[in-house]
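hey can u check if this looks right to u? its 278 residues, i copy pasted from the old doc so theres a chance i mangled smth
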Amino acid sequence: MSWRVIARREYRDAVQSRVVWAVVALVAVMVAVTSLVPLAIPQFEANVLSGLGAATEFAAMLVPVVALVAAYLAIAGERESGSIRVLLGLEPRRGTVVLGKFLGRAAVVVVGLTAGFALAAVPTAVAYGGLPVVAFAGIVVLTCALGVAFVGLAVGVSAAAATRGRAMTLGIGAYLALALLWDLVPQGAHLVVEGAAPAGTVPGWFVLLQGLSPSGAYSALVQAVVHATEPSFPGIAGAVAGPTPAYLHWAVFVVVLALWTALPLLGGYATFARSDLG
């Protein structure tokens, strides 16, 4: 059994269990609603890019949940039920199993996010009188990349965990640390280094620290995409005083997302490869 067969099975099972359709519906509704929020703010000159910006801020919190829920039981669930031994009887290479599980669950998340954004594009375009196709497409690609990064994290956690409960605990911990609480790291560092909370302009290292989480890297890359299509919007280093440091190039944050995808997956595989499945 190859990784392709495992990936197809994972995707098929998700479609049959309606996970994909739940993701599509959730993403479509939430992206559409949040993109319209600027229109409801009095005395705010809302435009479609500010609407998309609002949607991506919410996506940075929503997408990790979607990805973790879709993938945290990919291996741990089968380990606890014992069905993983049947699968390993067909494909004894555990690395192939981990890769197939990752690709199958990643496909579920990518399809769900893409379809959800496509549906949300309709009310957004109607409300604002149009949609910047290039910026919107870039945001969709980046949102899918964020989802894939958290799928890699979730499958890595699932591979390392022996039980559903432990996988859930690790997944919740990862979400809290990387999606909700990460901003406290640069805030605290700024307080220690500069002696005050950030206000107005900030040092380049502060922006870099913000972007070292998956959600932070995603937000930085969204800024880069929007700035590229509309220069009046601030880019990654918009709040940095003085020249832009080389380490704030958009490619750095692409690498950050790639590492958050690959390293947890490799770490989970290393643990899974040494595990005694009884």
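The chain has a mean pLDDT of 89.
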